[in-house]
Amino acid sequence: MGQRGVSEAGVKLGLGGFALPAMYSEDKSKVIRLIKSGQQSLIELSRWSTADDFIAHILKAGFFEFTDKTYPSPRKKTEVPLWFLISAQLVLCLYNGTNYSELKTFLKSGSILSRVGFNVGKRIGFNDKNKFERKTACDQDTVRKFFKDSEPGKINDWFCSELQKWFLKNSAIDTDGIFILDQSHLVVPNNENYKDAVLMPVDEHG
User: Which of 2, 114, 180, 182 is such that its CA lies 20 to 30 A from the CA of 8?
Assistant: First the structure.
């Protein structure tokens, strides 16, 4: 796939030599002009969901380029782009998915993730290891195992350091330092990944 950096075609490459996703800008007047002049050979109508809008927003902000460089990957070899694994996890959360098996539906129905990266045209997927025909660009089990193998401590450190710096750089945090905290009690599984879970301290007003 090439080295990390920029390919000869000018496409930005991330870990493992995989191309980073690009977001095309919306230009309705140009599309209408091309249709009227007969220069538009293919038109495909699609409806964006809330998840699509969110993914588009963080694509424009360069979030996936940032995570590709900084996320503490549990893999020594990158066989599926980090940006796709993280976007798949985000899509699952945005659709309130409770099981990774649901990803196959979300990834196929999403307007954005089904069109960016290598998931365009006849070839679907990021490597040639599949024994059977691919239904989505990435198997749900690959995503599940990736995050299962990620070390909680390293993710917490990344969230509290690198990610916060990215939030500040992109004006994602209120300049006055005002936050809204959710005081819901969350039931967590009885396993070692949640051993550090504690109650959030609040003041006398709750």
Answer: 114
